[in-house]
Amino acid sequence: MTTEVPYESARSIADGVRSGELSPVDVVETYLDRIERFNPDLNALVTVTAESAREAAAEAERAVERGDDLGPLHGVPVAIKDLNRTRGVRTTYGSAAFADNVPDVDDTAVARLREAGAIVVGKTNTPEFGRKTVTDNPLFGASANPWDLDRTTGGSSGGSAAAVAAGLVPIALGSDAAGSIRIPSSACGVFGLLPDFGRVPDGPDRPDAFENVLPYTFLGPIARTVGDAALMLDAMAGPDVGEPYSLPAPEGSYLDALDASVSSLTIGYSPTFGGFRVDPVVREAVESALDTLSAAGATIRQLDLSFGDSWDERHDALEWILQERYVGLYENLKRTAGVDLLETDREITPEVVSRIRAGLELDASTMAAARRRRTAVYDEIQRGLDGVDVLATPTLSRTAPELETTDPTVDGEPVHPMHGWTLTWPLNLSGNPAGSVPVGFDDGLPVGMQLVGHRLDDRGVVAACAAVERELPWVGSYPPTGLGGTA
Asked: Which member of 95, 156, 157, 397 is catalytic?
């Protein structure tokens, strides 16, 4: 794979198209060529919409020639996670039961990206219904990490992160219920943002508008740079009257947050985020990044967080909440698509079936216990943020595991296969915004640092991540070969 980068960033593409220096047709052809050449090895995109992308690019070029008002993403290619519906484009949810599903409507975030001028070039791989922290499913198989084809991308937005990392698209949409934006962003060496809950509406098909009264599922951008993510978030953010927990329009542009001074930052550092096992080389990479920020004028305070009860019980709280969510998914698909995931003769991932069955057996006292444990996590995270701008932790306990690994280890010790190596999911319980920014390597594999912000301050997270990016100039680099190799 060539190391040639077609264009520097989504922002430069948009600027070039707007000025007339770049043709949307040429831009889309460049990325479709990269997809054709390199996606077979990565399996990042599972559906490529070449024909409709070319048509959209031609219309985008005509709009420039006519002097039309152009959206902020005019002519910029984007990939959409296969959990998000796309009008007229197959949306499978990574499930054989939906192999031929073609929605007649865009999800709200997809519609807003199109309205901003972005051109959808394909759908990205995901585990079935986003079930796992790695990206594989019975329908399409596994996605490979561009830094090492024998390693996982992480999940569940692994296809989106791999596509961005390998330069198949400049930006991609992800979703996050337990770290699914930040996990693959860390594993693949790109930037991923968990915005404030309600910042990017989900809709429009939600039979229970109040399901997310306690937030844990978020939509957000995956990009090569913080600036590209800010541009994408500007296009997607804003209220939706159909979603009672969507937020009012943010004040100003997220792009305005990119120039915050490093010296103005006070960063709280939690090395284990309350008790996770962390590989020493990952901790060293994160602390080296913090040393760089300190030398540039940031104030670093090490914090000792404690979540009280054992992490095993926390896993239960998260799992109970996700089981409840899967019951909603199960009932919705029966109602809207006529598919009973417990009765279909098509192959369904056993973990999906078991989660639905377990959710159907949940009782009120169990869910009350889950909410109490969740409250303890929430309170401790807010305490950790007291007096600091952001809280820093490793994003993952280790670099990307091998593709076939079902029992990952951290520093030689076995950990919970789903949540023991990801320091992300407590933020889905608390609802705090967070970003994962690449800060180093271990044996050629990227290491990410997670920056956690105050509630309703995802702009502060964008500002802090942009400051890290400025101080670590290798951030945003491509894999040396695009398909493995060392940095």
From this structure: 156
